[in-house]
Amino acid sequence: MPKHETNDVELLKTWVLSPAATLGSSVRAKGILLEIRARLPFVIKKSLDIDAGELTLAMPASAKTDFQTASALVAKALEGIESLPVIPREIEDILTIKTSERHRWLADGRLPSAGTRTVKLRGRARKITFHVFDPRLVEDILDRGVVDEWREEDASAAAENRRRAAYKAKLTRSLKKGKTAKAQTGARSDDTHTELAGWEEFKRDGLLR
């Protein structure tokens, strides 16, 4: 077989990600791919890809040594992958929630943080820090379907806050109206008193006689 044809033959190996690892999320599966790629030598990172929850390592036959090295690294990285912390974009996809909901539930403790992670954005000097979550906790939240309950709680709390705000605004208007009426009443009393006092002086001077 000609040498160029031999080089075109690919070495292939696949690994199927379990539902416990992906939690049914394609975003989570892509996150696992990126996590494993980060542990591979730069020149062979792109040799590993994912499709429908299945990792595939594909390299030319001429790279047999690199292929064996990469295979061992991937297998090692997959050990305990189910415990890989869930990052923000993954939990939003797994639970089908909005970013605002994630922030709110993280702040009030309903969505406990498993710690923080700091990464450097590619091509930038700036680093970002974000909260990560325990995959087993996320799985439990998903299984129990508590997201709908949390949304109902939030809707009730929002309605109560609107009711209180409306009552407070009404009370403020009432107090302001009362002060205005009192001021006007006081002004009329002063006018009446002044008029009567002048009238008495007018009478005392005998100008009506």
Task: Describe the protein's topology.
Blueprint: H1 3-8, E1 10-16, H2 19-22, H3 26-37, E2 48-51, E3 54-60, H4 64-77, H5 88-95, H6 99-107, E4 116-120, E5 127-131, H7 135-144, H8 146-204
Antiparallel strand pairs: 1-3, 2-3, 4-5
Helix pairs in contact: 3-5
Protein model, in words:
- By secondary structure, the protein is α+β, with helices and mostly antiparallel strands.
- It has a domain at 1-82: Gyrase A, domain 2, CATH 3.30.1360.
- Helices cover 58% and strands 13% of the residues.
- It has 8 helices and 5 strands.
- The protein has helices at residues 3-8, 19-22, 26-37, 64-77, 88-95, 99-107, 135-144, 146-204, and strands spanning 10-16, 48-51, 54-60, 116-120, 127-131.
- The strands form 2 sheets. It has a 3-stranded antiparallel sheet. Strands 4-5 form a two-stranded antiparallel ribbon.
- Strand 4 (116-120) and strand 5 form a beta hairpin.
- Helix 3 packs antiparallel against helix 5 (88-95).
- The N and C termini lie far apart (143 Å).
- Residues 1-6 have low confidence and may be disordered.
- Residues 175-195 are annotated as: Disordered.
Number of strands: 5
Strand order of the largest sheet: 1-3-2
What's the overall geometry?
A: elongated
Q: Termini separation (Å)?
A: 143 Å
Are there runs of 5+ residues with pLDDT below 50, and where?
1-6
Largest β-sheet summary:
3 strands, antiparallel
Give me the CATH fold name of the domain at 1-82. Gyrase A, domain 2
- Oligomer classification: single chain
Q: Give the ordered list of helices and strands.
A: HEHHEEHHHEEHH
Question: What is the structural class?
Answer: alpha+beta
CATH class identity of the domain at 1-82: Alpha Beta
* Mean pLDDT reading: 84
- Radius of gyration of CA atoms, rounded to a whole number: 37 Å
Any guess at the CATH architecture of the domain at 1-82? 2-Layer Sandwich
